[in-house]
Amino acid sequence: MRHSQFWALLDDVFGEAYSRTLARELALDGLDSRTADAALADGVAPRDVWHAVCDQMDVPLERRDGGRRERAVPPPR
Q1: What are the tens digits of pLDDT across the range 9-30?
Q2: Number of folded domains in the chain?
């Protein structure tokens, strides 16, 4: 997953305005309490950050593609 795909998914699932707030402020348990922004800056794979956000926010598996069935989301490692 590319960074651009991560941001597109975040926008699709949470909305553009809220997704940026989540990325900047939500401490993710699965990433040592780093925010998505910090984790990406630290070199964590966007796919791993995406799944950490989804896990923290209880996004069901069927919604993790942003509502676009043609979009393949790589599984967590």
Answers
A1: 999 999 998 999 999 999 999 9
A2: 1
The model's pTM is 0.88
CA triple 72-29-18, angle to 5 deg: 60
CA distance 30 to 66: 21
Of 70, 30, 69, the C-alpha closest to 50 is 30
Question: Does any domain span residue 68?
Answer: no
Task: Domain of residue 50: give its range.
Answer: 3-63
Burial class (CB in 10 A: 0-12, 13-18, 19+), 31: buried
